[in-house]
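Translate structure to sequence.
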């Protein structure tokens, strides 16, 4: 295949996290030829344990969670490619995607699920998931009655520190040598909460036999014990493709969408951490599902409207079903396999 000979799909999903894979799950099961292009990595892939996903036990890592999701999507007939989409251009029949290996894909609709990257503080730092955590809503439960730190010097860091008092009475706010940049109102609130604000920079770290953080050492010679904490230095949204397509963005870098993930560019959807809202797996999955259903309703061949009937005539029996033969074949094989498994049970 060459760049002038793209593989054609109904839907191309860029990003293989919970939001993108859920969108692909829905579009594929609803009869649309779908490809997922995933460069790998992402926030979900870094999780040591999966929290707040009903039906998924906490011993499941993010990598295991995503691998199962990938296998599910492929089992329904979607294509899954590891690669980086470097460019997306509008074309007469939809969109043309250029992948980093020089190959091109064509799709009638595009779903952007490229997420964001957390800004990491300077070392020394504990391992992610073993004392360094980026999601309060996911991980605060782990630190009930444990000593906790919050790193940062802005309003978000101060607020997270105050929020953590709902879970523990030992909360330190670590400035790491930076001057506070939070507002006067936040400063007044912070001073009214029992939080120690530590100015000194971290010079060393100690970990226990299990790899978890035990304490930080500071340049003033003190050592303070912590079970874990949250760095609050902002997010870097992976919105280059959205910007290249002309999608409207908010001041923080998120992509503007409606309730079904539609962006300001017709045919382009955005879901997951790339859009405003809570950065949670169940939320991302819901967004992916809603986008997948919206795309199905937009692209499905039937019912043919009155206007279309007047233009094209009644539906010929030879035109149905509207699914591609490859998806129909996969669906038949899937049903047969399920029946065999049920018989074995």
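Result:
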């Amino acid at each position: 295949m060459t760049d002038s000979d793209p593989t054609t799909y109904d839907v191309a999903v860029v990003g293989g996290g919970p939001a993108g894979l859920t969108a692909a799950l829905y579009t594929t099961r609803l009869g649309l030829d779908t490809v997922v292009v995933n460069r790998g990595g992402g926030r979900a892939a870094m999780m040591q344990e999966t929290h707040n996903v009903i039906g998924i036990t906490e011993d499941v890592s993010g990598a295991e969670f995503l691998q199962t999701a990938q296998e599910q999507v492929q089992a329904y007939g979607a294509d899954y490619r590891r690669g980086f989409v470097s460019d997306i251009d509008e074309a007469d029949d939809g969109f043309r995607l250029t992948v980093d290996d020089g190959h091109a894909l064509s799709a009638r609709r595009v779903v952007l699920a490229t997420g964001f990257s957390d800004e990491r503080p300077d070392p020394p730092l504990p391992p992610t998931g073993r004392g360094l955590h980026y999601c309060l809503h996911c991980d605060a439960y782990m630190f009930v009655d444990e000593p906790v730190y919050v790193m940062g010097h802005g309003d978000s860091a101060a607020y997270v520190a105050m929020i953590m008092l709902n879970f523990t009475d030992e909360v330190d706010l670590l400035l790491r040598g930076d001057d506070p940049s939070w507002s006067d109102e936040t400063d007044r609130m912070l001073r009214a909460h029992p939080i120690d604000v530590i100015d000194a920079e971290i010079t060393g770290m100690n970990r226990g036999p299990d790899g978890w953080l035990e304490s930080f050492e500071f340049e003033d010679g003190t050592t303070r014990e912590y079970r874990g904490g949250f760095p609050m230095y902002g997010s870097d949204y992976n919105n280059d493709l959205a910007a290249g397509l002309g999608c409207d963005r908010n001041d923080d870098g998120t992509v503007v969408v409606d309730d079904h993930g539609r962006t300001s560019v017709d045919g382009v959807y955005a879901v997951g951490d790339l859009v405003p809202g809570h950065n949670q797996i169940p939320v991302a999955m819901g967004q992916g599902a809603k986008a997948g259903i919206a795309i199905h309703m937009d692209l499905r061949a039937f019912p043919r409207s009155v206007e279309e009937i007047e233009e094209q005539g009644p539906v010929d029996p030879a035109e149905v079903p509207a699914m591609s033969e490859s998806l129909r074949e996969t669906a038949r094989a899937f049903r047969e396999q399920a029946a065999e498994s049920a018989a074995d049970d």
